[in-house]
Design goal:
Length: 414
Amino acid sequence: MRSLLLGMLLLTAPTMSQAENWSRFLGPDGRAASPDSDIPLTWSESENLKWKTEIGAGSSSPIVWNDRVFLTSYSGAGEDVTRALLCFDRETGKQLWKFQVGNEGIEDPAQGFLNEHGYASNTPVTDGKLVYVFFGKMGVYAVDFNGNEKWTVPLGKESSNRQWGSAASPILYQDKLIVNAADEGRAIVALNKNTGEQIWESEAAGYELSYNTPTVVEQHNELVVSVPGELWALNLETGKLKWYAETNLAGNVSPTTILDGETIFAFGGFRSSGSHAFPVGGEDDVTSDELWYARNSSYVATPLLHEGHFYWIDDRGIAYCTRAADGELVYRERVPGLTSGGRPVYASPVLAGDRIYIVSRYDGTFVLPARPEFEILAQNQFADDDSDASGTPALSGNEMFVRSGKYLYCITAE
């Protein structure tokens, strides 16, 4: 009887639900939102900082699964670069292990945007059993929670005409690991997450300069990705093209598409060339089905959609709020406190409770209200950290994990 009662207690004991895990880039559903999280308004080295730990450079985001935090980093450059997947204890920040991959063969030199975002731009993804990390020309790796490699698959060693390296993050859907290897292989690839075996490959020259993470549209069995000049929807089971639409998003398409019900939103293009809204579930050419096009757009960051409005700070330091219904501008304001000059923000905004948190590259984290009225509620900086912070934060429970080029921080109310 005592054994039975103990078993029942263990089954009913509170544990972190999967919904509280931040398992991929932009969170578990790609919406960058944790509306129940209670994150402090302000913090510093002496306020609301649970821990900080040293890491290497990189612009990828941390992910969280139960008591583990995972992050990628790199050292060196070009053909001398070494990439790493790091694992930390969530409670203490102690590094538990490091999985390293050295360079083999050619690699892009540190120049242009690659010099700014580095060689660790792809956020890992986990299903709670394995961690999957995309290391660009070095391929995809599946690593267990003890840091042991389970399998690896190469995805090409090509470069775009810009030689800016890889940026898109892998995602999981059912038994598939889906990777946008536009830079390395001009392809999107679906792999069996357990074995690495290829399920399908969508290969096309048009993927070049597509840096965004694909979006799953489960109700229509499709995968949407933005490419220069077009929006493509692939069949999730075969990788074959289902529908496409012409867009004004030419070149360097970085922001991830956002799904809201039956509408997909696309942003970006060089330079800030606009935003589009299309219905999902179409066939063949759906360009004429466009719901709206707006000129204002983000160039790098993925906007946050909350209660019918999009929010972001672009790479010129301008804060935007637009309406999701028609793309109309609500506000466009220059952000005070951004002092770093050109391209001051690369990170995407995240929603915690009723606040929006946006990490700038050199001027700390800005906090805005999650309502269509421009206001800077706080600007939080760590005085002893002058490194580039370009990664989007991760939220889990009442903790926010922020990375820079030097440290990983855990921020929570004291």
